[in-house]
């Protein structure tokens, strides 16, 4: 996608790490024995919902497309083609700027305001605990400069030696590319990695990579195995 998706903070964004449990029907014999943990960025490690929204809003305005911020909250931002269709259908607007124009303006806004983002405490606690025991990585559909700026803003840049971003892969989530690339860079089989996600698309991506997942939107956290083929 040309610009990161809008993620709302999930229930994992409280002040204490959440317990991890396993449902009986998804019992996992490898629980507690994963070699690595791989984390999504937007909405999982870092609460980026508002900055993503305002970045797109500012980028559109910079190119002469002024829409109510509240309207934009209800529109998918992950795909600029979808956004353009909503603009035409709902607002009667057909922006003349290119997708690249919007991306550049949105990225500039994001990087200038990266200090506004906040960590998701429960997931950050899990990341620190995981890093103390083994390898960790980030697998994101966002722009790499944005991911690194966001991690730096919340004091996590040092924690992740491997960061996979949108420019590193051919297919974005729900394609498995980001997770497969992260596992490859860690030198690990994907099945030995546990993924942390906050969207259905991200969970599908990790499952397609044959990784077990934790969906931070649910409490208590539960390990889910990929569906049987």
Automatic annotation (TrEMBL):
It comes from the Bacteria. CDD domains: HAD_BPGM-like. InterPro entries: HAD-like_sf (IPR036412), HAD-like_SPP (IPR051806), HAD_2 (IPR041492), HAD_sf (IPR023214), PGP-like_dom2 (IPR023198). GO terms for molecular function: hydrolase activity. Keywords: Hydrolase. It holds the Pfam family HAD_2. Residues 1-29 are annotated as: Disordered. The keyword Hydrolase applies. The keyword ATP-binding does not apply. Gene3D superfamilies: HAD superfamily/HAD-like, Putative phosphatase, domain 2. SUPFAM superfamilies: HAD-like. This is HAD family hydrolase. It comes from Streptomyces sanglieri.
């Amino acid at each position: 996608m040309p610009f990161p998706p809008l993620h709302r903070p999930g229930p994992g964004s409280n002040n204490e790490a959440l317990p991890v449990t396993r449902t009986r029907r998804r019992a996992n014999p490898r629980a507690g024995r994963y070699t690595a943990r791989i984390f999504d960025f937007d909405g999982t490690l870092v609460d980026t919902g508002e900055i993503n929204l305002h970045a797109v809003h500012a980028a559109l305005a910079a190119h002469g497309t002024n829409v109510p911020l509240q309207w934009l909250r209800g529109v998918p931002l992950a795909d600029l083609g979808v956004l353009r269709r909503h603009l035409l259908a709902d607002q009667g607007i057909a922006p003349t700027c290119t997708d690249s124009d919007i991306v550049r303006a949105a990225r500039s806004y994001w990087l200038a305001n990266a200090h506004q983002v906040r960590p998701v405490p429960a997931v950050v606690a899990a990341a620190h605990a995981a890093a103390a025991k083994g390898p960790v990585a980030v697998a994101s559909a966002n722009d790499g400069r944005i991911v690194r700026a966001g991690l730096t803003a919340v004091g996590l840049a040092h924690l992740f030696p491997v960061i996979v971003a949108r420019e590193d892969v051919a297919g974005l989530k729900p394609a498995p590319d980001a997770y497969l690339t992260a596992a490859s860079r860690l030198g690990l089989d994907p099945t030995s990695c546990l993924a942390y996600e906050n969207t259905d698309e991200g969970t599908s991506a990790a499952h397609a990579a044959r990784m077990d997942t934790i969906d931070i939107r649910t409490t208590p956290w539960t390990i889910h195995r990929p569906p049987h083929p």
